[in-house]
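Exercise: predict the fold of this chain.
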Amino acid sequence: MAEIIKSRKAVSVNPLKSSTPLGAALAYLGMEGAVPLFHGSQGCTSFALVLSVRHYKEAIPLQTTAMDEVATILGAAANMEEALLNLQRRMAPRFIGIASTALVETRGEDYAGDLKLILARQAALADTTVVFASTPDYTGALEDGWAAAVSAIIESVVAPWSPAMTSFQQVNVLPGVGQTPADIEILRDLIESFGLYPVVLPDLSGSLDGHISEEWCPTTQGGARLEEVSQMARAVHTIAIGEHMRRPADLLGSLTGVPVTVFPTLTGLGANDRLLSLLSHLSGKAVPARYRRQRSQLLDAMLDGHFHFGGKRIAIAADPDMLFSLSRFFNAMGAEIVVAVASTANAPHLDSIPARRVIIGDLADMEDAVRAAGGADLLVTHSHGRQSAERLGIPLLRVGFPIFDRLGTAHMQTIGYRGTRDLIFRVANLFMGQMHDHAPGDFATAWPVPSSEEIVHDSASFADH
């Protein structure tokens, strides 16, 4: 069991975590025809917008209520109302997801009551679904904001089960913030291959998968459809990924009566075996042959890759669920987790991470811990860790959010047999790229090259014998 250590620094020197409102905004972006709205100042929104655009390389329709000094003192209900009306008039979204910020939460506004009054008196908003999630910046991290937004959507949109609902082979999927659009697409294909119908909430595979649309649209294109989300009670089962999705999954289960299974991770052999077994049980069908083939390919990749993983010293800094998933992955491949840093302590399974201790801190804590541990062979974190990797002189595996100095982030796969296989190859190739290519001059010190006179003398001595 890992020891949990909380950093006592008064300031974050090199931040690891991203804000809770940003996590909520990313979840809202997984809804069709959506516009995320930050209830706070313009600065809060600008920070999240820049990171999102740099990470996905896409236009992000993130808006703000633009609170100023007067609104901060006297109240910002008018700002919220004006923002909602402006968005409806200019962008005509089907869904507006509001996330609070520290400015509103610290002031102690009754934003839920304000929103209720606004929706009651503004007929222009009657056809727009508006959801509000409490996501103060000073509490939690990206995972907490994502989970809060999904819970708010479930509370506001999902209809409770009733006898009039027709049940069919539908499976609800609640992906975590660590799943890329490519991961969600893999899950969708996997579920459909068993003859089941997936309803994914939120669904980034349609809205942030990096495609060129024929027409410009001010809102998200693709994503979870409100009509399908409202009918999640028709499902035979709900699959959630990551411990941070347990609360939304339990909320959905209590509202609809649909059984829930939470997978802490879907990276690795055992986790995917359990997923396919569940889908086979739900559908009554055997596992398709192509997945048996992919499983065999993963086993071969594990066999090939363990030579490069064995004995390697790994330092990981990430949000709790990603930290748990990646540490289990590296540990299963024979590597040692010498440093584990989590962005927040809001996770029940941090003590299950295969490391001596888990530090709740930032990238500066990670860098100090690596030096104290005598170094590492690989640093695993997002793009803000690139300077630390350079100072430590070790390679960097970019994971999580944000990754802004590489292309194709939305298409990286880490779940399923194929995603796990590709991750093994990515890491093994990083290790192989650090291997030194030897040249004849490398051995001059250990085995000095003899002079021409010595060669002649040795040749004559050999001839005499």
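Check your answer against the key: Residues 3-10+311-408+421-433 form a domain with the Rossmann fold fold (CATH 3.40.50.1980).
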